[in-house]
């Protein structure tokens, strides 16, 4: 089967420069949203498998990856969801399936709640759920000068490899490439300014009464050894979402696209086609 070339470009949406990778091949559209402190690299092992069956668009959210770390963008889930809608319109897509990992899954839920008519299905991988808004004292503290330096020093208390060992069950997968990709954002000063604004403006995750109105067919995929977002969150989401199915993988952590790309691909395919 012919493999299409992956195109990379910067587009401007909501007055923010967004990095995206895409393959437009006339097949059903699928949009991929990474999680917190990540990038399109999250889907690097999944992309070559999915592009045989879907037109694909993966973006770096504002504040992450190669996208602009704007000080004017309001880093809230509502704004992220609006940006996703504008991205869908920019590429003139209809009936889109959204794949969201971790925080990207929560953004996908916000998007489906806002514009259900544009969304075909949701695929949520280790999706964040039920988190409240940051405590008031942290929100107030985020306005203090040099708060972003506090975040910098807090994050740098651990090595990148230590963080990866927490998100990957199979530590043999942790190689120099993976470490370097996850280190990249930590080297950018503006990344910490973006995190400060995300802490300040991020609403809480959708609560049960809000989830129950989302009728979009939803596939939840989880690693049973996820130390970041417990599989119990998936078990709760499958009860609160009216049209959801949960699949779990044994001996798998939070970075499910790195650990189980073939299984994730096959489950996405069977659910969507």
From TrEMBL:
InterPro entries to which the protein is assigned, alphabetical: AB_hydrolase_1 (IPR000073), AB_hydrolase_fold (IPR029058), Epox_hydrolase-like (IPR000639)
Record's keyword terms, sorted: Hydrolase
Alphabetized GO MF terms: hydrolase activity
Transmembrane segments: none
Protein name, as recorded: Alpha/beta hydrolase
Stretches assigned to the AB hydrolase-1 domain: 28-261
Database matches in Pfam families: Abhydrolase_1
PANTHER family registered for this protein in UniProt: ALPHA/BETA-HYDROLASES SUPERFAMILY PROTEIN, LIPASE-RELATED
Superkingdom per UniProt: Bacteria
């Amino acid at each position: 089967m012919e493999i299409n070339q992956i195109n990379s470009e910067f587009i401007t949406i909501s007055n923010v420069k967004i990095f995206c990778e895409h393959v437009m091949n006339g097949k059903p559209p699928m949009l991929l949203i990474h999680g917190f402190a990540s990038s399109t690299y999250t889907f690097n092992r999944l992309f070559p498998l999915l592009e045989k069956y879907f037109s694909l668009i993966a973006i770096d959210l504002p504040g992450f990856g190669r996208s602009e770390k704007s000080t004017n963008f309001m880093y809230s889930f509502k704004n992220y969801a609006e940006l996703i809608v504008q991205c869908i319109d920019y590429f003139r897509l209809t009936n889109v399936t959204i794949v969201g990992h971790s925080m990207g899954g929560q953004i996908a839920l916000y998007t489906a709640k806002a514009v259900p008519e544009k969304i075909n299905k949701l695929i949520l991988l280790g999706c964040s759920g039920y988190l409240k808004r940051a405590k008031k004292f942290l929100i107030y503290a985020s306005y203090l000068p040099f708060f972003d330096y506090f975040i910098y020093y807090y994050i740098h208390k651990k090595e990148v490899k230590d963080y990866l060992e927490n998100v990957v069950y199979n530590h043999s997968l942790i190689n120099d490439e993976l470490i370097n990709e996850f280190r990249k954002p930590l080297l950018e000063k503006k990344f910490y300014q973006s995190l400060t604004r995300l802490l300040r403006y991020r609403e809480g995750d959708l609560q049960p009464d809000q989830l129950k109105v989302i009728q979009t067919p939803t596939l939840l995929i989880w690693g049973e050894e996820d130390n970041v977002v417990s599989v119990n969150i998936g078990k709760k989401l499958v009860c609160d979402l009216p049209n959801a199915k949960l699949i779990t993988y044994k001996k798998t952590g939070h970075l499910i696209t790195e650990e189980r790309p073939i299984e994730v691909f096959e489950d996405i395919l069977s659910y969507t086609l």
